[in-house]
Structure formats: structure tokens, C-alpha cells
């Protein structure tokens, strides 16, 4: 029995099996100011899970082509549209704001062509059929029944317009409330937290002690994360597991899958280091094992492995002082100079 060997020269699209240079399924991409992760979109839209294979085939076979990305984006947009429309419909239905009018009668009134006032009067006479002796139709030039019908139609149109305006104003109120809520969240995240921690010096260097629970952190960013998540209850968004009902943060999903369900996490074949996403494995291999340094300084032509290292280096060539002291507002070019300066507020000097 012969076995067919599948030779892959470039990347393989897991959705259509085409060969080429494609995007990683787990790598976040920006599309119209929104972050997209194609593996998550496949799970949300079609409940399809594409699992990366371990080893050297991981990065080459965990990709998706442009054509499949376009179809996936259309499907995701259509799903969001249907869910949004259904949600709005049910809101209107439960609030009893949807009314069904008699379209047949209204269409008869609109389509009827009355050539003269006499025909209009004759129509009412034939309906009455002369059975009501007390009912007298006056043959005046201005027919009061015609005026009454016009007033009724105008009132009906006015009521419809009024309902539409109420619905639009309600939608505007909801949108304004969402914007106000999002702005309030941004203001909380950007607030000054210096009054909530105390800087102190120990044998390991500078430490940030929380004034509420006395926990100690080596980096100010670590304290920020602790304060927001523990004391402000601003928890990160959790995502569901494919195999159980547990919800974990995105960067812990690979660890959970490996520990709880035996699904291997993306790992480097050279050093065995594990990562939350496959694209991080590829970036790690290019940087640490292949020595790739594609970020070049346009002043001194030095090369760096990451954009962050390049930006940190470029500060030396400019007059910018991006590192600012939280206690005295003094600024510095390098972070190590800021750390050394903070010791002066503690009346300490490094030997």
C-alpha cells in the first residue's frame, strides 16, 4: 500500500489547503480599528476548532489565506448583524412598541381615485343605502366628510412620526449611555495611582508596596495591574474553554488546555519554551535562535530584535525625556536614570 507524501513548500491554509504566505490563525490582526483572531472567529461563528499540531509543522500549517479571511469576516459580520437585529426586535416586542396596522384598508384609501366631490358623496350614499331616515347629506360645495377623512389620515401619519421619533430618541439615549460608560472606564484606567502605593528600598532594589493590602511589587506596572484587578474589580475578559465550562484569560488558555485536557501548548522545538500563541513561538525562534534583527536605527545603523528596543535606543539621539518621576515631575532619557533618581526621595544612595 503506497502512502502519499504531502510536501509543503510555504504555509498551508487550514481552511482550503492552499499553499502560500498566509496569516497565522492565532495572531491578532487589526481590521477597521478592531482586533481579530481568526481561530476565535471560527469558533464563535461555526463552532469549529482548529488545533495547532506540535513540532516543526506548527507554524507552517496553522495559517489562513486571504480569501478565507474575507469569507470569515463576512460571516462574522452577518452573525453580528442578525444577533443585533434580533435583540432590537425582541426589545421592541417585549415593550409592546410594535403594532400591526390594517394594510389592506390603508392601501384601498391610498389607491382609490376620486375624480369629483359628487362621486365621493355617491359612495357614502350607496353604503348607507337610505336606511337611516335621520341621516341627511347636504349638497354643499365643501364636503365635511371629506375633510374629516383627511384629518383622520393626517392624525394617523402624525402618530406614526411621533412613534418613530420616540424610538430614535431611545436609541440615541442608549448610544450616549454606552459612550459615557466607555469614557468613564478610560478615565479610571488613566487615573493617577501614586497615592495608592509606597516606594521603599530593600536588598533587591526598589519595591512598590500597596497601601491597601501591603503586597509588594518590583515594577510599577505590576502594581497597576494588581490594583485595578483586585481593588477596582476591573477583571480581564475571560474566554471559554473548548472542552469544559471553565473560563480563563486569553494568555492562560494554552496552559489550561495542556494541564486539564492534555492538548500541548505551542512550544519552541529548539529550547522547549512554551508560549500562549503560536505566533509568539515564531517570533521567539527568529529573535533568539536565528539572531534576526530587522529593526534598524536610522541614525547610527544599529540593529535590534524588537521595536521596543529600537525605540528605547532612539531616545539617546533625541531631546525627548519620556521617563517621568511620579513624585517630583522630573524627567529622564533612560529608565535606569529614573530608578536611580527615585532613591533620592528615600534618602538613599546606591554604592
Can I get a quick summary?
The chain is mostly helical.
Explain what the structure shows:
- Helix content is 46%, strand content 11%.
- A hairpin with a 2-residue loop joins β4 and β5.
- It is extended.
- α1 (38-46) crosses α3 (66-94).
- It is mainly alpha-helical and 351 residues long.
- It is built from 11 helices and 15 strands.
Give me the secondary-structure topology.
Blueprint: E1 11-12, E2 19-20, E3 23-24, E4 29-31, E5 34-36, H1 38-46, H2 57-61, E6 63-64, H3 66-94, H4 103-111, H5 117-128, H6 144-189, E7 197-202, E8 205-210, E9 216-217, H7 220-231, E10 239-240, E11 247-248, H8 253-261, H9 278-289, E12 295-296, E13 303-304, H10 307-314, E14 323-324, E15 331-332, H11 335-345
Antiparallel strand pairs: 1-2, 3-6, 4-5, 7-8, 8-9, 10-11, 12-13, 14-15
Helix pairs in contact: 1-3
Q: What structural class should be given to the helix and strand makeup?
A: mainly alpha
Q: Numbering strands along the chain, what is their spatial order in the largest sheet?
A: 7-8-9
Tell me the fraction of residues in β-strands, as a range: 5-15%
Principal-axis shape equals extended
Main pleated sheet: 3 strands, antiparallel
Low-confidence stretches: 105-141
User: Helix content range of the residues, please?
Assistant: 40-55%
Average per-residue pLDDT, rounded, comes to: 76
Number of helices: 11
Distance between the termini: 75 Å
Cα Rg: 35 Å
Topology as a string of helices (H) and strands (E): EEEEEHHEHHHHEEEHEEHHEEHEEH
Give the strand tally: 15
